[in-house]
Design a protein that fits this description.
13% of the residues lie in helices and 20% in strands. By secondary structure, the chain is of the alpha+beta class. 43% of the residues are buried.
Length: 279
């Protein structure tokens, strides 16, 4: 893990292109204590060692299905239930961390990709086994910024500086056509792109990452400014960083200040996690 010394940083955003219900603002100065953080999201290989060592059965496996992006399924895949507000998500029977697109898929060639189809509860179980924990939103954003103050991305304010792709997000017209200009359609290796100033890879794009906090759109306006945490209760857990499906036409959440949330027992093909430790 990489040790980050405690420090103050400017958290949040007043980005006019953010989403009001996400509660990115107000812009405020926050302090976090020192902690250690994984340089990458947890990989399929790492999660396999955890499963081998503990016999853990993920919630997707217990439920018998998970959500898969339709664009990753073969053209002749049988019709399945979709999500009304996001029809590109398909409920796929037998999809789980080891079979990301369903029973006919596997992890061949993807052991260095981030594990997906893991719920918040699954991520917490892994952290407990590894002697670690999930980051708070404040810790996650502090680490993701890599020491840059008030920038949109981990490397600055330009999405593609000098025409260079710095993360794995959707290229082209969502959800019909992905040009794969950044080299990928689904997930990519956890270290596929250059690290930020703190040595962390792929904190934006690739997969959403679970955080420890319960999600609230307005807790930042009243919460303490040292080691802030989310509300003491809630219905959804916070996720950060965006994923390979983010595109500015509908989901410009591949920014370091962007927030999202999911129910803690839910899983999708674009959500993973990374661990932190106290020092």
């Amino acid at each position: 893990m990489i040790r980050l010394d405690g420090s103050e940083f400017l958290m949040g955003s007043t980005d006019p292109f953010s989403y009001p219900d996400d509660g990115e603002g107000p812009l405020r100065r926050v302090r976090v204590d020192a902690f250690e953080v994984e340089p990458t999201a947890i990989t399929n290989a790492e999660f396999a060692r955890f499963v081998d060592g503990t016999g853990h059965v993920t919630e997707a496996e217990r439920h018998g299905w998970s959500f898969v992006f339709a664009g990753l399924l073969p053209d002749d895949f049988p019709p399945t239930r979709g999500v009304a507000a996001a029809p590109w998500w398909r409920q796929v029977e037998g999809a789980d961390w080891g079979r990301p697109e369903g029973p006919d898929s596997d992890l061949e060639g993807r052991l260095d990709h981030p594990v997906v189809h893991v719920s918040w509860n699954d991520a917490l179980a892994y952290c407990d086994w590894a002697g670690a924990r999930l980051p708070s939103e404040a810790e996650w954003e502090y680490a993701a910024r890599g020491g840059l103050e008030g920038m949109v991305f981990p490397w600055g304010d330009e999405l593609e500086p000098g025409g260079e792709h710095r993360m794995n997000v959707w290229q082209g017209e969502f959800p019909r056509h992905n040009t794969r200009a950044d080299g990928f359609l689904g997930t990519c290796p956890v270290d596929a792109f250059a690290p930020n100033g703190y040595g962390l890879h792929n904190v934006t794009g690739n997969v959403w990452e679970w955080c420890a906090d319960w999600f609230s759109r307005d807790f930042h306006t009243r919460d303490k400014r040292t080691n802030p945490r989310g509300p003491i209760r809630g219905t959804r857990r916070s996720t950060r960083g965006g994923s390979y499906l983010c595109h500015d036409s509908y989901c410009r959440r591949y920014r370091v200040a962007a927030r999202n949330s999911m129910e803690p027992d839910s899983s999708t093909g674009n959500t993973g996690f990374r661990c932190v430790r106290d020092v």
